[in-house]
Amino acid sequence: DWLCPTHCIEPAICPAIAAPRTWEMSDAVTTWTEALRRERPTAGPARFPCRHVVHGVGMYPAELAFRGFAAWQAQFAETPDGADLVVGSVSSCHGAVGILRAESRRPAAGTAGDG
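Predicted structure:
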């Protein structure tokens, strides 16, 4: 029964468990992405790790959004029938992660297209 404080700076000793934090969410997202890649063409992860700059202010470089999209485009170029991109906003402790899926709208081989 714990809610992280709004402005938690994610210290090495986690106040929720009163012990050293033994995980890094970015690493967990990378491991999950690698597992997904074994099942379906998957780019990324495009992670937006929020890091504290000054008290109460966390941010990530906007450049990461462009890198993530470029990785997805490159994967889709290699696998034109479809590709996923794992994308998420994460802190060291937790985050929100999802999958963007692109699939080709080209007619399958041997079917009539619409011109």
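Summary: The two ends are 59 Å apart (CA to CA).
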